[in-house]
Amino acid sequence: METLIQNLDLTAKGIWFPIALGIISLLYILFMPKHISWKVIYLTFGIGGFMATLLDVIVMSGWLDVFDLGQSKIPGLGDLISYSLIAPCFAVIFLNYFNPEKKWKYVVLFTLLSFLSEWMLVKVGYMKLKGWNTWWSLPVYFFIFGFWLPWHLRVIKMASEN
Asked: What is the pLDDT of residues 20-73, one digit of tens each?
C-alpha cells in the first residue's frame, strides 16, 4: 500500500487542489446544460487530454524541464488529473458556451480561468517553477481558446456533415 501511495504521489504538497479542481470540473460537465453534443464532448475530451499530456511530456518532464508537479519525477495522480482531466474539462466547458458573436469574451474569461488555476497550483505548492514564469502561459491559453479550440470545433462539425 505504501508503494501505491508513493507511486500516486498522494503525499505531495498541495495535491488537494488538482484533485478538487478535477472533481469540480468533471461534475460541472456532467450537470451543465449541454449546448454541444456528446460526440463533441467525447472528441474534445480525448484530443484535449492527449494534447495536454503531450505538452506535459515535452515541457515539464521532457526537453525543456521548466516546472515540476508534485514532489517526485514519477508522474502521480495530480499530474494525471491536471493534464488528462482539468485541461480537457476546461476545453469542453469553453466549447459548450462558445458563441462566435461573443468569442473574445469567452476567450478572455477562460484564459484568465486557466491562468488562475495554474497560479493556484504554484501558490499551494503543487507546481514548482524551474525557469518558467506563470505569466508566460497567458499567450498559450489565449491561443488555445482563441484559435485552436474554435478550429477544433469547426473540424468536428465539418467531419459530421460528411
From this structure: 999 999 999 999 999 999 999 999 999 999 998 888 777 766 677 888 888 766
Q: Pick the closest to residue 71 from 130, 132, 5, 12 (CA basis).
A: 12
Phi, psi of 35, deg, nearest 5: -110, -5
Q: Is the pLDDT of residue 117 over 70?
A: yes
Contact 88, 146 (CB under 8 A): no
Report the candidate in 99, 130, 111 with the shortest Cα–Cα distance to residue 122. Answer: 130
Beta strands in the chain (DSSP E): 67-69, 127-129
pTM for the structure as a whole: 0.90
CA dist list (Å): 113 to 21, 35, 108, 150: 12, 20, 9, 18
**Angle in degrees, CA 46, 146, 64, rounded to 5:** 65
